[in-house]
Amino acid sequence: MKNNYIDFSRHFGSNGPNAYFSLCDEDYSSIVNRKKFVSKLGYNPKDLVISSQVHSNKIKLVDKPCSVEDFDGLISKSRSVVLSILVADCMPLFLYNPISKYFALIHSGWRGTDKNICQSAISKLINKGDNSNALLAIIGPSIGQCCFEVGEEVASRFDSSYSIKGKKDRMMLDLRGVLKDQLIRSGVKAYNIFLNKQCTYCESELFHSYRREGSSAGRMIAICGWN
């Protein structure tokens, strides 16, 4: 394994923030491992913004390094912070506006997607004078429709077009498709959305997966910021 991360930064252009997503070499729920990871990428670990995630649609605007409770989305335009979230099947969503310089990092599992967390983030940006037409979006590795088996109680929260029949009474949900369409309905241009199609459940050599490993699963880290 040449690198222990995927670099999505090119999708934000040469003047944008960096966007990285770790692989499963470590469990990044450990603060120690998280700090080692950002240090190897050239960041000061003291610049990290860390949130305890609760599958909400709550968004926090930050302008300095900090730890925050019960938020699943972080927004900043400060070059002195490094936003971070943890995932293990849920979708990491990176946002950047090259005009206003606001950038965001969002944890979007099925609960957050059901609550339309991306719309919450974009609404907060609009309230700050941002324009969603300019937003660039990256949806990082997450569990794919091939492996995201859910019951009717979850599938019914989303339009039936996002589900296909699974085994018995189960459905296979395309959560990535839901999020992409939510972004478009929120004003993000389809051509400004990059959707990574790697499945965290399928690719066990690369990713942690809560669905595959259960409560013993480690976590990947997504980070966004300038260095």
How would you portray this structure in words?
The protein has 227 residues and is α/β, with parallel strands linked by helices. It has a single domain (5-146, 177-225), classed as CNF1/YfiH-like putative cysteine hydrolases, CATH 3.60.140. It is built from 6 helices and 15 strands. The longest helix is centred in the middle third of the chain and has 11 residues, at 117-127. The protein is globular. The protein starts with a strand and ends with a strand.
Secondary structure elements and pairings:
Elements: E1 5-7, E2 18-22, H1 31-40, E3 48-52, E4 59-61, E5 66-69, E6 73-76, E7 82-87, E8 91-96, E9 103-108, H2 110-114, H3 117-127, E10 136-139, E11 149-150, H4 152-155, E12 163-165, E13 171-173, H5 175-185, E14 193-195, H6 210-213, E15 220-225
Parallel strand pairs: 3-5, 3-7, 4-6, 10-14
Antiparallel strand pairs: 1-2, 2-15, 6-9, 7-15, 8-9, 8-10, 11-13, 12-13
